[in-house]
UniProtKB/TrEMBL annotation:
Organism: Streptomyces subrutilus
Matching Gene3D superfamilies: P-loop containing nucleotide triphosphate hydrolases
Keyword Transport annotated: yes
Biased composition (Low complexity): 284-298, 308-350
Name of the featured protein: ABC transporter ATP-binding protein
Chain spans, region Disordered: 267-350
Pfam family, one: BCA_ABC_TP_C
Lineage: superkingdom: Bacteria
């Protein structure tokens, strides 16, 4: 981690306690699926708020509603008291910046150029000014570049300003995404799984960086699966389950809540709509287990068929009759370094 705390980043801190983000009754339906159901969430100036929940809980969909990538089916999103139109560029202009779950850098542009892209909502010069390259444009360009270098110093990449983004190690690409988001001078930063794919050292550095961002007056809303990271970092944590906000509270309140533990461990809790089905499956598993314990003949194991036809495309090869007991490697959370260098910079919302 570099000098994240001693650089003046010029963002004007909002008065502490001021409501920066207010989401009210945000609902997002995709056909018959309600991905987010009537979620209220508030983020105040000076806060780091965490959004947790199992896979498919609706966290990213909620972020997409906040940032105008999705038009919520119901509900409103306000920034500092003003309801936002669901248009990404207007949301950014208002003061909300975000990063994505999968890295979306312009991989063939330099580190500095990537940050400059993030400045475009804060520059007034138009197309003609850019084409004519008059003194006004040159002044604005120099100011943007100075600001971008300031941000690169803040995240510790000032010495790599001229490197191609794709050549950065994974952890630095993630930091660069954050610098690009900061380039729009936001009052609220939304981070979608910022530590996905990071090693423990990179995760610690990311934690420090987020504290430093908060200290310079930017509120943060962060989605993360790494519970230790979330509970260390956040002033408040909200947990989504099946699109609904299950609980919101301090780290210790949420950490100890049996419904949150149940949601993560897949255990039913009182009032859980799926509890009956889970109980039935457990009973069926228990009786199958008892039958298996009764003896090896209780339930014949399927034997591989050595005369099985080879699969299409495998003509001439000997059919593999050994059952494959090797588990598939667990999919990495988020993109890997290798993926990230080829990740598209635009496209799907997730
Ligand atoms: N564009 C879409 N069209 C249809 N269904 C969608 C779309 N985007 C998300 N969903 C569905 O909405 C639900 C919530 O997905 P979402 O990605 O928001 O969950 P998540 O909590 O961010 O999950 P993860 O932790 O795995 O990223 C899922 O069932 C998902 O399949």
């Amino acid at each position: 981690m570099t000098n994240t705390t001693d650089t003046d980043t010029t963002a004007a801190p909002a008065p502490t306690g001021e409501t920066v983000l207010e989401a009210r009754g945000v609902t997002m339906r995709f056909g018959g699926l309600t991905a987010v159901r009537s979620v209220d969430l508030q983020v105040n100036a000076g806060e780091i708020v965490g959004l947790i929940g199992p896979n498919g809980a609706g966290k990213t969909t909620f972020f997409n509603c906040l940032t105008g990538l999705y038009v919520p089916t119901e509900g409103t999103v306000s920034y500092k008291g003003t309801v936002l139109p669901p248009k990404p560029h207007l949301v950014t202009k208002a003061g909300i910046a975000r990063t994505f779950q999968n890295i979306r850098l312009f991989s063939n542009m330099t580190v500095l150029e990537n940050v400059l892209v993030g400045r475009h909502t804060r520059t007034k010069e138009g197309l003609w000014s850019a084409l004519l390259r008059g003194p006004g444009f040159k002044r604005a360009e120099a100011a943007s570049e100075a600001r971008a270098m300031e941000l690169l110093t803040f995240i510790g990449l000032e010495n790599k300003a001229q490197h191609l983004a794709k050549n950065l190690p994974y952890g630095e690409q993630r930091k660069l995404e954050i610098a690009r988001a900061l380039a729009s001078d936001p009052g609220l930063l939304l981070l979608d799984e910022p530590t996905a794919g990071m090693n423990p050292q990179e995760t610690r550095a990311a934690e420090e960086l987020i504290f430093a961002i908060r200290d310079m007056g930017i509120a943060v809303l962060v989605i993360e699966h790494d519970m230790r990271f979330i509970f260390n970092l956040c002033d408040r944590v909200a947990c989504l389950v099946q699109g609904e906000k299950l609980i919101e509270g301090t780290a210790s309140e949420v950490q100890g809540d049996e419904r949150v533990i149940a949601a993560y461990l897949g255990e039913p809790f009182e009032g859980d709509p799926g509890a009956d089905e889970v109980a039935e499956v457990e009973a069926a598993e228990a009786s199958a287990g008892a039958a298996a314990a009764a003896g090896p003949t209780a339930e014949p194991k399927p034997t591989p068929n050595p005369t099985a036809e080879p699969a299409a495309g495998a003509a001439g090869t000997t059919p593999d009759t050994t059952p494959d007991t090797t588990p598939d490697p667990a999919p990495a959370e988020g993109s890997t370094a290798a993926e990230s260098s080829t990740t598209s910079t635009e496209g799907e919302a997730k």
